[in-house]
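Subject: Sanity check before I submit

Could someone independently write out the structure tokens for this chain? I want to compare against mine line by line before I put it in a report. The sequence has 694 residues.
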Amino acid sequence: MKVKSKSIVFLFLIFISFSILSSNAFAKNLFEDKDSDTKYSRSAEAGFAEEEFRRGVQSYYRGLFNDAINQFERALSYLPEENLIIDWLGKAYYRAGMEGDAIKHWQYAKDAGYGGLVLDNRIEVVRERRVTGVDSNLNIRYTETGSFSGINKENKLLFSQPISVLPNYDGTIWVLTYGSNELLLFDINGTIIKRVTGPLVGFDRPVDIMRLNDGDLLVCESAGDRLAVLSDKGSFKKYIGKKGRGLGELVGPQYACQDENGNIYVSDFGNSRITVFDKEGNGIFNFGSRTAGFDGLKGPTGIACSGESIYVCDSVKGAIYEFDLSGNYRDMLVKEKTFDFPESMKFYDGYLIVSDRKHVSTVETGTGIVFENAYIGNAPSRITCAVPDKNGNIIVSDFKTNEVYIMAKMSELIGGLFVQIERVYAEKFPEVTLEVRVQNRKRQPVVGLKAENFYLTEDKRPCGNVRLTGAASENENEDIVIVIDRSMYMADYDEALNTAIREIASNMQGVGNISVISAGQIPVIEYQGKPEGLLKFSSKALKAPLSKNTAFDLSVRLATNELINAEPKRGIIYVTQGRFDESSFARYGISDLTTYMNNNGVTFSVIQLENTGLVQELNYMVNNVNGKSYYVYRPQGLSCVIKDMLEVPNGLYSLSYTSVLPTDLGRAFLPVEVETYILNRSGRDETGYFSPLN
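---
Independent answer below. Compare away.
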């Protein structure tokens, strides 16, 4: 009996030993002991490093970047030369807004032969961004990166004579066709996803399409001598104007624009004038005839509005003229015979984009300086419209070749896309979900991508059951943090502050979450919850007192921390009188703050309680973090603040797949890679994750 018991124990020990050896033999350790002289053993340092690394990866995917940095540094204390840990430490520094430290660690790993082209590209792009910042300058050459043809491969006509284009904030593009009298909606890959023929009688030689302030679409019908108002989805709503020479009447309308007051300005080619309607569609006045010092318009085509100025192209004179909002002639912006036959003209970020037969040019509104962006060459082309889209491209319609061109900056075409896998959700393994952010090299988000634009692999093998489960650009809600200036300068602005907070909360319409942080001597979280909780906001209820020294930098960092795990669309609104004190940037500089927000998809806007220009620091932050500034008592009110924030491009995508990798009971580091393709550009990223422990 005793002998039998000993035999059983002996066999049991052999079985356990074999199991351990088998497990070690077939499960690949993440960090091998390079000094080990036995096949199955590892040093304690490698095991400790692996455990700290695992915790660091989990903290990183939870948005706890400071914790991740500490855990990766502890892992490095055990294995100082392990490049995988160094790479992840760089990632954590990058997401924490410390790009200099991130580049230093990535460069160290690269010099050790780690990372390949993916790491090379990451270092190059981040280093370039730190030098050049956000590039919104249109005075640069563009080149064709792709096109949508009106004839498919089977020689079937899809559309005829595209004449005007209108990009949408979600990456889709409206294309108006003169020949086929249609309005077409294209996705980013050139697929027609919707056809609109207008009202029952159809469009009658449409020339231009624009978006009105309320989101509706306006189509100028040149042969119909009228304007058609459509919903944002393309459904017909009503007509504006009719044929004639009287007030509110048109003959061959060409192009249109709208000012901030809602008035619509139309280039009335047949009447050689500009016809103006109010936002309800009633004719209110005309201008452009001969006056003192001005010979009058001969062939008005392109028209654009910027602030208090209306700019009009004259296709006969080849010039651009400037008028005020009442139609009074101001000056000649671009001298006569500069352009051959200018047609469409669109205002964008301080520039006028002019389509002139074979040329696309930009004009600085302040100086009238003309810069050529693109030249089609000797091909039989006629460019009728050129408009920037949300992805940093220029969309161009070519009337003669029956094509729509996508034009990009040469640097973007050569450098490709910047792709990052920001988060991996593996709680339901083998079902895995990735959050992937796609940008161009200048940090502009790429929106409108479809499932076919992504290729997922795990350990270089194609993933199974891949699907696109979400695109942040399509989200209709946003989480917001309001940071309130609590400097002594705010003492006289209680009423204005109350107005701003209540109006923001009201405009959120109960959707999304909102927080309030007081930027006093120490940041204080005053409120967290739903917008309706702030509909009766009073500054008297704030816990943080006014202070001579305010921690603006710490408040913005805290606000960003609050938003890292919030909705994909997220932003900070800073409510202030407009001045800073010496302590505002005591801990973090402006560049550190903008980097931290940018690297986590957070926008930054300002509501000023005093009607003055933005101070230099705030102007820099707004311009570099996809924001805008508003005066609390401006005539239009603050109703568009939330809408503007929702329409900021967001290049975050959610992709899911079914993994087939062995997990080693949750101890294995599982690699995953993603490639993104769009027209002639591509980008790639690689990462890894751990499945839940079993």
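---
OP: Matches mine. For the report I'm noting this point. The two ends are 38 Å apart (CA to CA).
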